Amino acid sequence: MYQFNEYQASEHRYDDEKILYKRCGASGLRLPKVSLGLWHNFGSKDNYDNMKALIFTAFDHGITHFDLANNYGPVYGAAEENFGRIYEQDLKPYRNELIISTKAGYDMWPGPYGNWGSRKYLISSLDESLKRMHLEYVDIFYHHRMDPETPLEETMLALDQIVRSGKALYAGISNYNGERAREARRIAKELHLPLIINQNRYSIFDRTIEENGLKACAKEAGMGVICFSPLAQGELSEKYLHGIPADSRVARDGRFLHKEDVIQPEKLKAIRALKDIAGERGQTLPQMALAWVLRDPEITSVLIGASKPEQIVENLGVVGHTEFSEEELQRIDAIYQSIAGLLDGHRHV
Ligand code: NDP
After folding, report:
1. Which protein residues are within 6 Å of ligand 1, measured from CB?
2. Which value, to the nearest 10 degrees, does the dihedral of the CA atoms of residues 185, 189, 191, 197 take?
3. Closest by alpha carbon to 189, among 160, 155, 146, 218?
């Protein structure tokens, strides 16, 4: 049996409402400019009390949006289960204040129906996610990646059925390029499906959405963009400048971020140079890295991860200081260009 606690959300959580929330494309939904993802630190071996501290710290500071996927863990499903436990114990009274998203599209269960973008996979996966999270509906359900084989009509019709059945309020797509996103949006329009958001990686170190047409498509289609790994999984901080700290992602869970990538001397030099610019702006490097993503009017939210509650508080310091001078942007671009070749070879997710 669950033990019910007595979490009371801070009464000041919406004090910064005017600066914290932004409309998601042309939709009616406003998202916090900083959202929290549960990809790491919510697995079956992670500390449950820390998970609660992360979620409560976020919500107490006005972060209303929590992002999951069917296979976040490890083990697959564990992040949804842990979130579901916290929800059941403490967050349930706040359901109407929360935007909870999940996804399906990557490997989840064995056999031909536990991956990619078929109607069979998406509908059964969301049913399982809802059970794990003790929810009747999610706010956003995403197709997690492009499927080169399943017809896009089938995937979009599955999302449409999911929304019409009340199991999700909005639909989204993740890791799509501009061309596929445009096609998805066209089909969604015909169906009157609220396909309102793209979830893609974007950071000072990863400019893919500028190159593959996604950002341009989102603007043209009035869709929002929420950017994952805006800190390049923690590389855009000071933490790896003097080795690998024992409590860092590389040391604790290096499935997608490897030691040999974070200790490259050229990259560390670039990070030091970025840190200098952040200092001149009166920001920490993570704050500047998040500001760099949010500087763009097309971007709705930065989707951060955190291993400690203090990181969330530090990162929220970005809100209200997302303007850059032309000179700052040029200096950041020059640093990026100096290691761009290095970065291209090390995109793991
Ligand atoms: P980030 O780039 O924000 O990296 C988060 C990590 O950076 C933290 O876990 C922490 O790592 C470190 N960190 C955060 N803040 C600070 C700080 N202030 N100072 C120092 N270090 C800091 O994002 P993630 O890569 O975690 O991705 C965020 C979310 O995006 C995921 O949880 C998921 O929801 C989503 N996502 C979606 C994908 C998709 O395909 N749609 C793919 C990947 C992610 P440490 O442990 O070292 O402290």
Report:
1. 37-40, 67, 144, 174-175, 199, 228-234, 237, 239, 248-249, 286, 303-307, 311, 314-315, 349
2. 50
3. 160
Taking the CA of residue 41 as reference, the ligand 1 atom at the shortest distance is 9
> Is 9 inside a domain boundary?
no
Residue with tokens 């989840």: 108
- Is 0.90 topped by the overall pTM? yes
Query: Phi/psi class of residue 347: alpha, beta or left (left: φ > 0; alpha: ψ in -120 to 50)?
Result: beta
Closest residue to atom 15 of ligand 1, CA basis: 311
Query: In this predicted model, what pLDDT tens digit does every residue of 176-190 receive, in sequence order?
Result: 999 999 999 999 999
CA of 4 to the centre of ligand 1 (A): 29
State the total domains in the chain. Answer: 1
- 62 in helix, strand or coil? coil
CA of 149 to the centre of ligand 1 (A): 30
> Does residue 261 belong to any structural domain of this protein?
yes
**Which two tokens mark 278?**
């952040």
Ligand 1 centroid to residue 191 C-alpha, Å: 34
| pLDDT for residue 18 | 80
Q: What is the domain range of residue 250?
A: 17-344
Whether residue 7 lies inside any domain: the answer is no
pLDDT, one tens digit per residue, over 14-25 is 998 888 999 999
CATH number at residue 161: 3.20.20.100
Residue 187 lies in a domain: yes
